Amino acid sequence: MREGRLPGRLLRLGIAIVVLARTLGARDEETTDQGTRERESALDGKPTPAPLARARTGIAGLVSGIFLLAAGASLGGAYAAWGEDGTAGAAAAAGSSLSTDVTTTDASADTTTAATTEPAPVEDPVPETTTAEIPTTSTPDGTSDAGETTTEPPPADTSGDSAPTETVPPPATAPGVPAPVLTSKHESRPPETNEGAYPTIWLQRALPDPTPPAKRLAPTFARELRQVAAAAGLRWWIVLAVVRARGGDGAVPAGTHSLERLANRLARLDADTHPVKAIFRLSGRDRDLTDQVMALARYDRAVGLRALVRGLESAKPRLERRILRDERINIYAGGRADIAAHRIDVRILVLIRYLRVTFRQATVSSLFTGHRFFARPGVVSAHMSGLAVDIAEVAWTPIAGHQAPNGLTERAVKAILLLPAELQPQQVISLLGLGGPSFPLADHYDHIHIGY
Question: Where are the domains of the chain?
């Protein structure tokens, strides 16, 4: 029906133009005749009525205006119909291009014939960029084939060979507007540690006194212990170590008569001059028990009897002064400043004194100052809380190059593991793994790390 509208309207437009031309011609002839008659009347002396001529001229102009108005309306309708036909043709052409994969060869031929007979379609203007999403199909080679800009996504492909479909925002079309970021360069954060099945989280906080009131000696027992040991010619820490190793615990681990009998027996074994041999004979030649007794004796000597009565925290200032004045404890300048500023936990101070008593010399290579903040990604080092120390030398022998089995480093690690339960560290790291808190790490070839 639309194909027949344009010729009919053009015919009507032509007829209107012909009528208009005839009217204008008649008007000109009438005007000419009127002028001739006026001249003749003037010659004859007979006047012609002017109002009648003007009326005829006005009627002719009115008729011409009406015909011009009708011709303009017909022409506008013709152009409007032509635009509708062009839009329909463009839509038909777009539909035929989208359905080329599912139509037959005959249908493609018919579409081509129709496109040649119809006038050229007017291209649709480019739509403005909106928030509608453009469905994009990712291909295996990293490219993407963008489809038509629609608000509905394309039908999902259920076949297993097709690439997954993802939705991305449309690119910016305005000049000067940066293109949207379609991919992210951020990666997932790696785990803090891969030790075992679960990560180890170290809580950095101030620890309480390792010797609570239940583990402290009673002042009366401490005075009696000193008197009995002095009467037998012994050191009080040797007698107390044997009492502790035999199971004596609490504020009063042994009575007066028990202390006297034990002190006299140790004196007969010459424990003041050769304590290791005396303890070995007293324990029935038990090497493990002997090592335990000697470790307890060195610990008692390192902290002092007053600290065992009042607690280690009360003895911290005294321990700091003894360490800083001891010529056989070598500490770098930053570490000495840490101790003087009271940044180091009392457990570390006791450990340094214990190694000095056990091996007669110790060198500290790292405390708080100079150590890195993180022990590993995401884990704050225990050095930052004053709860760790690195020992680089004992008995005037460096740890580097002396970590062979049954060597000096193994003896030092075993001595640390024999500390009382309240002074047991959480980490003893070297190139040796002796069980418990002792485990090896390759970057600890030149020192022993002890952390609480």
Answer: 2-88, 211-310, 312-452
